[in-house]
TrEMBL record:
Domain DUF8119 per the UniProt entry, residue ranges: 15-85
Pfam families: DUF8119 (PF26436)
InterPro entries named among the record's database cross-references: DUF8119
Name this protein carries in UniProt: DUF8119 domain-containing protein
Organism of this sequence: Halorubrum alkaliphilum
Keywords of this entry: Membrane, Transmembrane, Transmembrane helix
Top-level taxon of the source organism: Archaea
Membrane-spanning ranges: 35-53, 59-79
Length: 86
């Protein structure tokens, strides 16, 4: 009989903190870019409606906020295409 140590067992079900830590470390720059875009978009729309469109209805403000979703995808898709064509 050989005297070997059994292999260390890895935890098959890592904790939520471990999964979050792993996800953040893998997607750090993408998450940062998403956050910067969101903050910039909300700031831009808020400034527009505070300074330019002062008497605009509330639904228009919300519609401008919602246009941030296609603007986000359009911006990052065009950025990716520009990087490929460089």
């Amino acid at each position: 009989m050989t005297d070997t140590n059994p292999p260390e067992e890895t935890d098959p079900d890592p904790s939520i903190a471990d999964r979050v830590r792993s996800h953040v470390s893998e997607n750090r720059t993408g998450m940062f870019h998403d956050l910067v875009f969101a903050v910039a978009w909300v700031a831009l729309v808020s400034l527009l409606f505070d300074l330019v469109f002062v008497n605009a209805p509330t639904w228009a403000y919300y519609m401008f906020m919602l246009t941030g979703i296609p603007a986000y995808f359009g911006f990052f898709i065009s950025l990716e295409i520009a990087k490929k064509n460089r």
